[in-house]
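Re: Re: token formats

Sure, here are both.
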Amino acid sequence: MSAQINEQKADFNAWAVDMQARMEKVLDAHMPLASVSPMRLHEAMRYSTLGGGKRVRALLAYAAGDFCGATLEQVDVPAASVELIHAFSLVHDDLPCMDDDDLRRGKPTTHRQYGDAMALLVGDALQSLAFQLISQDKLLNNATQKLQMLHILALASGSRGMAGGQAIDIESIGIPLTRAELEHMHIQKTGALIRAAALLGAYSADNHDEEKIKAIDHFAKSIGLAFQVVDDILDADADTHTLGKTAGKDKLNNKSTYVTILGLSAAKQLASELHANAMAALSFYGREADLLRHLANFITQRSF
């Protein structure tokens, strides 16, 4: 049995590497060249987006798309759009007026490399490009399908999603939060875009199985929160080299985290419980959901 599990894990790892490389090519193909005016902005956009990251959101989109019967080609643009939104959020999060960080994905943050003003414009441009790609995607022939995707991505990015969660985060510095308050913040700040990635993958398919989409939604809500719990654990328990970004920032900034509220051991237990909830959402399905299951393992067990 252990040999079979190891083989399945190896197959998933090979799939993930292939999809990460695929996403790199898709992003490269859809982003403006650095040789096109305004050249420095386009160079900075490519610097901020290409050549790094685990592409977890793209992997979720591809896995959900596979589960629902979408082709890789159908998922390419929706997955890239989510990655662009994620990249934009990182550029803005790292700015001095936000988290003021110097390192991202093992290299200087965008504002350190290109200046604050250019970094602000990079985030704006990446966000706009994400919606542009979906709106002009020729593989999305159904106007209703396209509008649904745009709505999902807009909701996940705005005041009731990622931006709203970041606003709560900023206002909560130095203020002890309850577990419920922390969960509400991270459902918006981190979980909303992870959920959007999975749903965009699902809606990329020509035919929509509502039961499968419900299962994916439940799965993504659990795994999105688990992702943040693990991030809090890593911030407290890993070094800067391992993370590719500055370790210990939450403690330095006096932020409430799952580790500060629950303790390290209980935070790890919570990650395990959320992983179990995600798996339960797929319990009625067979091997067609295996990519999502392996991805849940990848997200929650990536360092401990």
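Second one below.
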Amino acid sequence: MADLPISLTCADYVRVLPLACGMVETPGITLTMLLGRSGQWTDRAEALRRATGDAGVTGGEASMAQHLYRIDRKDRSHVGLPVFPLRNLPGRDFYVRAGSGLRSVKELAGKRIGTYSVTASGSIWYRHFMRWNGLDPSTIDWTIGDIDQPFGLSSIVPPGAKLAPEGRSLSQMLIAGELDAITSPPRPKDYHPIKGPIVRLLPDFAAVEAAYWRETGCFAPQHLIVIRREVWEKNRWVARALTDAFAACETMFAAVQRSFPYATPWQEVEVERTVLHMGEDFHAHGLPRCAKEVDAFCAEAHRLGLTSRRVGVEEFFEEYLTS
């Protein structure tokens, strides 16, 4: 019997290269990974679009939020796998104007904050992080727009929020004093940790994020792998087979980081510190290991009014759990 052909889009994360290069075996599957190039954000956006919008591929890297919204609408066109190619801790993504005097998330209460979207996965985690810091996101005066250039994402403008003026980026508005802070996954082009004019709200973000992780257990998953439902229905075993393959890929990647820690001069120290804080499997895939984080994400989305009901982990990964 011929192997099942599977094609998945994904950004060019180093951690998926063992799978993309064929170093991880996928029994019964001929896997093609369609990767982005050079860490380009435009390529990442295209990978997300193709994963669910291109009938020529089986699936791929997709937004956690968009998968949740499909489920909320009873749209089961894509099957979510508990595989998370992109995780992030939120503290590093809060930026302010150099010399603003702002030094904590709680100080943002009532302030004017720019963000690229209120419906994206990262934005949901930012507000989860705000709550953990004792800040109610509803107190924020939100402006929605492009950080420096278009992300390629559409955004809903909720009551009380507004769009940035046409032709104005959020970074320009921050530097001009028209905003007090911005939240952004890519570093704004005018960011510099010392020279500014845009700096991080939390210069020692790692310590704050470590406390956040200790108390919440969330190394925030933002993207997951999805496959088209019709492929899964004909080959239900493929959901667990692909999840196992990505888990094996992560194990191989982690071993390389420990054996040859030369990406930066102090990578070995950082890897050791991360493992001491978060354990060996800090970038894990699968259930029940990752259930708590997914549940926290779904709960925050519902609290923000982005879903009509509270979706649970069992519904989020319904097909995978019945495979």
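The mean pLDDT is 94. The two ends are 21 Å apart (CA to CA).
- S.
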